[in-house]
Amino acid sequence: MLNDRQIRRTLAVLAIASLAGTIYASAIPLKLRPASLSEVWEQFLQTPWYWLGLGKRADWVANGLVLIPFGFFFAGALQWPKSSFHKKQLVLIGFAFLQLVIVCAIEAMQVWFPPRVRSINDMAAGFIGGMTGILLWQLCGQQIVQTAKNFPSLEKGFPRIALLVKIGAIALVLYGTMPFDVMFTPNEWGAKYAKERFNSVPMHDVLGPADFTKKFILGGWAFVLGVVLAQQTSRPKAIRQILVWCLLVELVSLPIYGRETSSTALLFSGIWGVLGVRLSDTVFITAHRLDRAYVWLGAAAAWSVTMYLSFVYRFKQVVTDTSVVMERVQGIWAVPFARAQRSTEFQALENITLKLTVFALLGFLLTGWLTRLQSFNRIVRIGVFAIWSLLLAFSIEISQAFLPPLVADSTDILLYTIGSLLGLAAYRVLMPSSKSSNTACHASPRWSANTDDQRNDQQ
After folding, report:
1. What is the pLDDT of residue 1?
2. φ, ψ at 371 (rounded to 5°)
3. Disulfide engineering: 246 pairs with which of 99, 261, 269, 279, CB 3.0-4.6 Å?
4. Beta strand 261-262 with 198-199: parallel, antiparallel or unpaired?
5. Would you say residue 455 lies in a domain?
6. Residues 134 and 223 in one domain
7. Do 55 and 34 fall into the same domain?
8. Which of 104, 98, 99 is nearest to 119 (CA)?
9. Structural domain contains residue 459
10. Which H helix or E strand runs over 286?
11. Around Cβ 269, how many Cβ atoms within 10 Å?
12. What are the CA-CA distances from residue 27 to residues 32, 63, 87, 109 (Å)?
């Protein structure tokens, strides 16, 4: 377990890494334009202020959100575990000055890296974001770090999985407020209504079988939370809790212009959540019975096929001209994350998170399968994991080179690889070893009690 000094160092590294990522994102696509310092200063003084409408508010907010982690980790690095009131005041004043210098430097730097758009709006958003991060540390930073410190003491299996599921539910609520383009006037609420982003009638916004399937599957998050809640409290209470979570996820999106508030999503997540509560014991018993190497292999194979089809199904045509194909293949090796500039910061982050998540699940399933093949050499298992993950990653990107308007990108291969490794790490951290238990339901209170009762009945 890390001591206080190590925690502060870790937070300092995270602060530096988050700031470095923000600076890099502000410079891509890294097309340097030579300019003297006097020219940079002159153009910086001419940085304009834009009156942003409702549709542009999300981009402005995103510039602030990206600097929240820097403020959060910076405050933690200086103030963990406790600080006096006067020290907190000094840190707040010093950080405000530092944040002002940083946001101004980033905007000035963009003179060297067109076609970035400079504005006082971005500087204001970045300053507010950094200050929000340091205030968030004051609000909940020490509790978050303490939870992280206590995590290794939790038993592998259900206790750790349950904690992460609850953290995921909180993250889902916060995600519903993004990109935080809050509406303030009746006209703005009317604009959201005109965009048909309010749906009070269930199923009214379902456009067809494919849309129904998509919306229904997306509600499946509540099933997992329902299973966990049912293991920790009585079923009636768990049902009430899961319905509150489902309602909360939709309600937080109500004042957000860029979010759709849907009674259909509430209906589907509610159904999934109640099913999770009702079938909780069955899920754990079934997981125990299906904990076999061939089941993990089948799940990994099925998920690989699903991912491949999901990444390539949006193509409009197939390129057969060899010269065009070669040109598109060569375009794979672009500046890392340069293509993310074509969308908003929020959309780019959303896209990156999605790719990391789906490959993390693949890495998790592959690790579960290979862990059960103890007869194979460890080097062989590592090789199989690497070949499977990389082969799928390259297959997706090479296929996209043949399928406009899809675009192959080496950045995606990097994201897929990182995602797979995250899945491997998650399995090692969450799942009990084969010597202690072979199932994810290890240490589940209700399931353990049921199995004890079954043993007593048999005796």
Report:
1. 65
2. -65, -30
3. 269
4. parallel
5. no
6. no
7. yes
8. 104
9. no
10. helix 280-289
11. 29
12. 9, 14, 34, 8
35 falls within a domain: yes
- Whether 404 and 319 have beta carbons less than 8 Å apart is answered as yes
- Domain of residue 316 covers 292-438
Q: What angle do CA 423, 428, 433 make, to 5 degrees?
A: 140
pLDDT, one tens digit per residue, over 251-295 is: 999 999 888 899 999 999 999 999 999 999 999 999 989 999 999
Determine contact, residues 27/338, Cβ cutoff 8 Å.
no
The answer to whether residues 36 and 146 belong to one domain is yes
Q: How many whole angstroms separate alpha carbon 128 and alpha carbon 68?
A: 8
- Show the tokens assigned to 42: 């002159």
Residues ≥6 apart with Cβ < 8 Å to 105: none
* Tokens 């004890």 found at: 452
Residue 185 sits in the same domain as residue 281: yes
Q: Can you read off the two tokens belonging to residue 131?
A: 């200050």
The alpha-helical segments, DSSP class H, found in 176-208 are 186-194
Q: Which residues of the chain have pLDDT under 70?
A: 1, 52-55, 80-86, 340-344, 434-459
Looking at the structure, tell me whether residues 428 and 337 fall in a common domain. Answer: yes
